[in-house]
Amino acid sequence: MKQLTGKTAIVTGANSGIGLEASKVFSGLGAQIIMAVRDLEKGKAARELILDVDKDALVTVMKLDLADLASVHAFVESFKNKHDSLDLLINNAGVMTPPYSKTKDGFELQFGSNHLGHFALTGLLMPLLKNTPDSRVVSLSSLAHKGAKIDFDNLDGAKGYKAMKFYGQSKLANLLFAQELDKRFKAYDLQTVSIACHPGISATNLFKFGKRDAPKLMKSLMHNFLQPPAMGALPTIYAATDSRLTGGEYIGPDGKGQRKGYPTLDTPHASAGDQAVAQKLWDVSEKLTGVQFDFSKV
């Protein structure tokens, strides 16, 4: 891992799970961390966990609700008022299999939060990313992308909703976005790179059961068969810090079925290889969010 002293990193969903574990490592490597969180109180508690280990850690908590485009715009404006560069953007936050619901802007919650919110965030941060040498965007996908498809005729779920199906669609969108973003960085000869990763199957706060936590027996099974968040965060850390990566890679665990283990290069499912779908998803995402990417050099 390369040292991150003097670097600035935004980590969405940094208050728990993979986001928190990655933030701990990035902070230990010297980075200034922006914990972009929906719940400020939980974010402040997570910040204290990092400061308990390193009282000199540079950690700031900022409000970001990816299910609200106004919040995304406000976050970016606030960040740009204080920073003129951005070395790492970790598109980590996500929701998994909620009951059918919508974002503030009327998007199906999983597609809206997991994909469109991060799409808008990345696009709005482009001026800083492209002008920061060797900057990186790391986007978290999931094993759930395998076999998923983008249903352009039912993105809002109005024609029927199955929670796991829509989760898979959102994580396929994350992967398609990450790959397409890197192609465009290279096409415009920019130094910024985009890398996708997935945590395997990790015991994080995504595994909730309605409004209640998992039963004790389920918790025991989860910890026996799923890897802890610190291990699940390793592909994210690898994607963000390994100097051998050149952009466009997909990083995941090296164990059986890519469910557990240490980070290595993984191969996306064939569903992530359709360039026409990737292009259409990009165009639809720009239209829905109203955010267009500016790849031109200043």
TrEMBL record:
SUPFAM superfamilies found in the cross-reference section: NAD(P)-binding Rossmann-fold domains (SSF51735)
One Pfam family it belongs to: adh_short
Classification via InterPro entries: NAD(P)-bd_dom_sf, SDR_fam
Top-level taxon of origin: Bacteria
Coiled coil spans: none
Keyword terms of this UniProt record: Oxidoreductase
Protein name as catalogued: Short-chain dehydrogenase
Protein source organism: Planococcus kocurii
